[in-house]
């Protein structure tokens, strides 16, 4: 019997976890229920899952997560209304089935833009109306900044951008506000928000949008980090930067790879990961949660991106290795036992 993570932070913020619906049963379900008081779908609320074909909505898997949250009195984060990834192709095809991005005729391009924005509005309207009473925080747009983009504003050159400019961002926030209501909390979510020049590009975009009256309430900092990067200070600076715009902050996808970048995948099983790396990870989790706690007036949710080390998106990076490497970013090991990362999060690492 170990202490519950979310109880430890009950005076500061809810602590959440990303799940697939299958993880809400058995031992994983018990971990989720005991240790977390906020939840988010790892995949099943993305457009490709919710509306794989135009007008055909697939609510079942997402509903399961909503029901679990209700039953267990958990907060619910919605991830995500708009992304360049995991979005079905039909969004970006014109009525004749041609790729909108290939269109050269200005009149037809204008028509395409209208059609795409209409589809976006329809998607958001349907989804938001269904879940508005249960959702506490909406990731409205995800990863719209790309510091390596060919434009000078760091705007990701996704199909959304190529067809609509930044209008998709405005329309997404405005439509979400319209159907979710004034009290809904709307976030712009991204990774490496602590890193220059990305955070400055994000800052400039958000400021411009706020000046235009676009309803953004906060920044979601994904926080996919590793045992060597980034510094705790750079995370602090980024939270302060966005707070200075009057915005809320949420830590939306926290996990900590055991590999410095670029990941080598040299450990082929959990057992091969040196104890000193797992201990270091525990210390880093402790320092980072100390920071979040200290800044709890500026951070309203901290969510971990996964349940245990048996299943993590980080392992996908090693799929092409002959013997794929193993990562271990979570507080629970592949057998669902607590590990130093857990003890760091609940501030009891000193016991060991
Ligand atoms: O659903 C299909 C299944 O039908 C098929 O059999 C299987 C075979 O590979 O693939 C399944 O889709 C996978 C999907 O997860 C659902 O499991 C995709 O291949 C896989 O690429 C996808 O990965 C997800 C990834 O987003 C997609 O880019 C990860 O689970 C998910 O953790 C990750 O989450 C993202 C956040 O949304 C945004 N921030 C970064 C974060 C990590 O990449």
Automatic annotation (TrEMBL):
GO molecular function: endo-1,4-beta-xylanase activity
Pathway the protein acts in: Glycan degradation; xylan degradation
Family matches, as SMART domains: Glyco_10
Catalytic residues, chain numbering: 253 (nucleophile)
Keywords from the named record: Carbohydrate metabolism, Glycosidase, Hydrolase, Polysaccharide degradation, Signal, Xylan degradation
Reaction catalysed by this enzyme: Endohydrolysis of (1->4)-beta-D-xylosidic linkages in xylans
Protein name from the UniProt record: Beta-xylanase
EC numbers: 3.2.1.8
GO BP annotations listed: xylan catabolic process
Family in the record: Belongs to the glycosyl hydrolase 10 (cellulase F) family.
Domain GH10: 1-348
Annotated PANTHER family: ENDO-1,4-BETA-XYLANASE A, GLYCOSYL HYDROLASE
Entries under PROSITE patterns matching the protein: GH10_1 (PS00591), GH10_2 (PS51760)
